[in-house]
Write a structure and sequence with these properties.
The protein is 46% helix and 10% strand. It contains 22 helices and 13 strands. The chain has a 3-stranded antiparallel sheet with strand order 1-3-2. A hairpin with a 6-residue loop joins strand 2 and strand 3. The C terminus is likely disordered.
Amino acid sequence: MKILQKFTHKILKLEPSSTGLPFGPFNSTTQRRWKKRPVSTAQTRLESQRTRDSKLDKLTSRLNQLTRSLTFHRLISARKRSPFVSLHLISRWKNVVGLNVSTTVFLRKYPHVFEVFTHPLRRIACCRIGRKMTDLIQEEEDSIRELELENVLRIKKLLMMSVNGTIHIHGLRLARRELGLPKDFRESILQKYSNEFRLVDLEIVGMVDRGEVGVAEVCVSRWPGQPELSEMGVGEVRVSWPGQPRLSEMGVAEVEKWREREFREKWLSEFETKYAFPISLPTGFKIEAGYRERLRNWQRLPYVKPYQRKEVVRVRTCGGAERFEKRAVGILHEFLCLTVEKMVGVERLVHFRKDLGIEVNLREVILKHPGIFYLSTKGSAQTVFLREAYSKGCLIVPNQIYAVRRKMLDLILTGRRNTRELSSQTEVNDESRSVAHNVNEGGTRDGDWVISLLDNFKDQSNADKLSEI
């Protein structure tokens, strides 16, 4: 009995770091449970196992504020009765816009964007979009109209990347702002350039094939004395604009242009740059053992480029899964290059998966290549950035539309500062009175008949005074 007590005493004094109880007659029936390893998925890496970029996250949060402001502008502009809306009605739009605070706090936080005033007749608080913001929105629309030919080329490149040469219009409508398309792009682009696009279905657009027999391409501008097309003996003619690139020139991805520059300027070998992508790892990224070797092998891995259709990748072949994934990286890289701000929301990018042939998990691909893409989770949506296009939270090569949107973002960042530049309170009241009187232009209001009677009475009294003189 004493021997048994000593044995149990030794068992109780075992350290917690030990592997377990030794095998014996007292624990032979004890079930040994193994600790489960944590599963590494896209969601777990998204939450903890990744290096965050504070500058791109800050930019995303600011762009979310701009998006909410533009949503308010769209809702206010949709009301045709007046250019302003009462704060009581705006408070109902809180869930539509997606605010975590009250609408009044949000509107008064940006006085350069929203003007909150008291209605002179009804004596209620109302809100309208500021003059600066209205001018910038109009400037953005004008810039988009000026870049109409670039939008045509952008849609054609998307159609060239697609598997069947078609794209759903619903996806273009959702990503309209990212691609820089006008609101009425279906009429102003797809129907206007019927020689470039054709409607396969009510919501599916395709590109007209230019390889048909008996089809010639001519330029819009004609020199003096040029004969008519019918006199030239051309059966079917498709009109194009001056300086339009050929399909062979359009079928060159942006990453291939970067590879050519790297090959010429840095004197790198073709083996190193033929299938490589620009890599810029985030600050603080922890490089594990063997990561550089895996990245070097992945950069040299051949794949089918976005605009190529000659080779079919089979996933079950040797290296087919990695090549299939690298093709998805190339398509996603080219899609981000076609956007205005080199960024797009994941929920909008999902609508192009079937058309572009991306049959892999998008978040898995994005998180697996942190040197090429960055996934920001600020706000209610997830946004993908092209890392090579940004530096310190700004676009390296800006464009016309990006410059206008940056001005809008500056108004958001101004907040409540520099309010002296705004019009004085007296001018706001005068302007609100004029707006209040012009609300029902073209219509009649209660009491208008009294004004006409008083005017007639005044005219008669003036005539009597003149007759007496």
